[in-house]
Design a protein that fits this description.
Its EC number is 2.3.1.41. By secondary structure, the protein is mostly helical. It contains 6 helices and 2 strands, in the order ααβαααβα. The longest helix is centred in the C-terminal third of the chain and has 14 residues. The protein is elongated and about 50 Å long.
């Protein structure tokens, strides 16, 4: 999660979204869309192993941390952004789908472009 937060913030800086820009933008119209091939598989695998011992050993954070959208949710919460927020997981086509969906959110005025 720490790597994802760092990468997301570095991507904003690379895109010209500085602290000054962040103060002026409408956070209700800023969203986070992150593409990933998989979620937190280590957490998921650990949960499967725990279930083999007993259902009482199941970590309650297994599902939230194993889903691919946890990265976008954490980044949005950290930035205070309240616009569209989800993750796309489509293997090799993930980046294309992310760009297409982000563009569609901007065209439909659900989000603003930087």
């Amino acid at each position: 999660m720490l790597y994802m937060l760092t990468a997301g913030k570095k991507a904003l800086v690379d895109g010209g979204i500085t602290e000054d820009v962040m103060e002026e933008i409408d956070k209700a119209k800023c969203g986070v869309l992150i593409g990933s091939a998989l979620g937190g598989m280590k957490v998921f695998n650990d949960a499967i192993e725990a279930l083999r011992v007993s259902y009482k050993k199941m970590n309650p954070f297994c599902v939230p941390f194993a889903t691919t959208n946890m990265g976008s949710a954490m980044l949005a919460m950290d930035l205070g952004w309240m616009g569209p927020n989800y993750s796309i997981s489509t293997a090799c086509a993930t980046s294309n789908f992310c760009m297409l969906n982000a563009a569609n959110h901007i065209l439909r005025h659900e989000a603003i472009s930087g």
